[in-house]
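Exercise 7. Given the encoded structure of a 96-residue chain, write a plausible sequence.
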């Protein structure tokens, strides 16, 4: 099954942040994704201070746990402090 309007995954499109500014999707990118995928609950990174146990704190905890698995699967990216994976984890404020 082919999508009619796939979102552009380049940094130039404005849908994703460059690695130097923390990687991950921008608000514009999330909105484009949600338009292309009705019913999606995708949202941007949790970057601010959160109350323990709140919905945002649980999203952060979940993301950090999933991305820790990616660090194990891709040790080359895990070692490189400028990789998209490491930059995104820094942006989400994941503990190492």
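Solution.
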């Amino acid at each position: 099954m082919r999508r009619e309007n796939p979102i552009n995954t380049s940094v130039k499109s404005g849908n994703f942040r460059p690695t130097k500014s923390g990687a991950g999707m921008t608000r514009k990118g999330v909105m484009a994704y949600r338009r292309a995928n009705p019913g999606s609950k995708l949202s941007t990174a949790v970057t601010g201070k959160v109350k323990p146990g709140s919905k945002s704190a649980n999203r952060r905890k979940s993301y950090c746990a999933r991305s820790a698995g990616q660090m194990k699967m891709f040790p080359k990216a895990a070692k490189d402090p400028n990789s998209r994976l490491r930059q995104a984890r820094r942006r989400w404020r994941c503990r190492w």
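Remark. Residues 55-73 form the longest helix (19 residues). Students should compare their own answers with the one above.
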